[in-house]
Amino acid sequence: MANLVEETKADFEALGEANRRLASRYPGDRAARQPVHTVYGGAQLYRAETTRRLGEAARRALDTYAADAGEFARAVGLAKPERPTPGQTRDWLVETVYERVKQKLEAEAVEDFRIDFEDGFGTRPDAEEDATAVRAAAEAARAMAEGILPPFIGIRIKSLGEEWKARAARTLELFLGTLLERSGGVLPENFVITLPKVTIAEQPRMLVRWFEALERRHGLSSGSLRMELMVETTQCLVGPDGRLALSDLLAACEGRCVGAHLGTYDFTASCNVTAAQQGMLHPLCDLAKGLMILAFAGTGVFLSDGATNVLPVGPHRGESLSGAESEENRATVHAAWRLSYRSIRHSLEGAFYQGWDLHPAQLPVRYAACFAFFLEGLSAAADRLRNFLEKSAQATLIGDVFDDAATGQGLLNYFLRALNSGAIGVEAIQETGLTVDEVGLRSFAKILDARRVRTAGRG
When comparing pLDDT for 223 and 458, which is higher? Predict the structure, then answer.
C-alpha cells in the first residue's frame, strides 16, 4: 500500500513548489548594514564636501547647546535610571550616550545621504535641472575619488506620475551618465535611487525598465541599480480593489527594492490631516508603519520612518547676541530636540530603526535616541540571551526539543540592531556567550544548529 506522500504525489510536489516560491519571496532579513538615518539635501546645494560640513555643523550645535552630558540629557529628555545596573552609577547612561554621540559625530556624522531632485529641489526650468544633475553627479564622483562619500548615497528623482515622469527619466539619465563617466564606470557603494509618491505598480515597474536600459548602456552588471519606495500616498497602501497594495508594489520592483520610507507629511496630507496635526506621532502614521511591517517583513527590505520638520534652529543669528537672545535660541533648540528625541524613540519602539534627518543639528539627537534605546536595556537583554543560550545547550545535551527560538531570535535581533547603530561593540555581544562567528550567522536557529553539529562532532 502506498503511503500518504506517494498517494498524493502531485499535490505533494505542488506544495513543495509553493513552499519554495514563498521562501524566495520572503528570504528573511538581509545581513547587510542598515543606516540609522537618511539625510536629505537639495541637489542644488550638493557638493563633494557636503556630508563632512554637515558633521562639522552638527558638532558645533552640540557644543553650543549641550556643553556637557547633563545639559544634553535634560535637553532631549533622557532621564537617569532610578535603579542603575549593579556596578554602574546613575550618571552612566547619560555620560555614555553623550560621549558616544560626540565620537560618532567626529567619525561618521552622516551615514546615508540623498541628493534630492524632488521636494528639496522643487520645480525649476528643465535647463536648470539638467545642469544641476550634471554638476551634482560630478561632485559625487569627486567625493568618491577623494574617499569622502558617506557609507550610503543616492538620489531622489521626481515621481513617475504623469506630470513628472519624463523629467524623472531625464534627471536619472543625466546624473547616472555623468557619475559613471567621471568615476570610470564604477558606482559608489550602496548607491540607490529613491522613487517618491508611488501610487501604482506600473511606476516602479517603469523604473526597473529604465534601470535595465541604463545597465546595458553603461556596461553595468544586471541588478546593479537598486531602488527605494516612498510610502506617502493612501493609494500606496490600499489599492482600488481594497487590497493591500504594498505587496504588488514590491513585486513590481522585480527584486531591486532595498528600502521603503514613510513620507510623513505627504502621507498625512493625503489623509486630509491638517498641517498643525501632521507629524510622526499621528495615529495614521502608526497605521501606515504597521502595514509596512506586515507587507515587508521577511523580504529583506529595510524600513525607514520620516522626519521631524520642527528644526532645531534659534530665532536669532549673529556673533554678538545678548544674553536673552542666546537663552531664547537655547530654549528653541532644546524644545526641537525634545520633540525629535520623542519621535525617534517612538519609531524605535515601533520597530522602525531608520528615519530621516533634515538639518545637521538633528544629528546629535538621532544618535542619542538610538544609543539610549539600546543601552537602557542592554544588561537585562544580555542576561536573557545568555539564559536562552544555556537553556538551548542543555536541551541539546539531553535530547529535548528547544522550541522557543522565536524569542531567542528577538533577543538576538536586539543585539544585532544595537551593534548596527553603534550603541555597542562586538565585545558586548560576546558577553552573552556568543562568538563573533555566531553573531555573523544573524539567526538564532542557525546558531543552535551549528552548536548541535559541534556537540555531535565532539561526541
Answer: 223
DSSP line for 112-124: EEEEESSTTT-S-
- Whole-angstrom distance, CA of residue 298 vs CA of residue 293: 9
Range scoring the smallest mean pLDDT among 189-203, 314-328, 355-369: 314-328
Task: Give me the residues paired with residue 200 across strands.
Answer: none
Angle at 329 between CA 357 and CA 325, to 5 degrees: 160
The domain ranges of the chain are 37-376, 377-458
Q: Tell me what the mean pLDDT of segment 349-374 comes to.
A: 97
Length of the chain: 459
Cell of 34: 542598515
| H runs (alpha helix) in 399-435 | 405-421, 426-430
Structural contact between residues 293 and 270, judged by C-beta atoms closer than 8 angstroms: no
- Fold assignment, 37-376: TIM Barrel (3.20.20)
C-alpha to C-alpha distance for 245 and 4, rounded to whole angstroms: 39
Q: What average pLDDT score do residues 97-117 get? A: 97
Q: Which of 189, 188, 190 is nearest to 140 (CA)?
A: 188
With H, G, I as helix, E, B as strand and everything else as coil, classify residue 21.
helix
φ/ψ of residue 55, rounded to 5 = -65, -40
Which residues are within 8 A (CB) of 221 and not within 5 positions of it... i.e. 6 or more apart? Answer: 215
pTM of the model: 0.92
Count of beta carbons in the 10 Å neighbourhood of residue 221: 8
Pull the grid cell for residue 5.
506522500
Pick the closest to residue 136 from 125, 147, 123, 149 (CA basis): 149
- Per residue, the 3-state secondary structure of 197-266, as one string, reads CCCCCHHHHHHHHHHHHHHHHHCCCCCCCCEEEEECCHHHHECCCCCECHHHHHHHCCCCEEEEEECHHH
pLDDT class for 455, splitting at 50, 70, 90? low
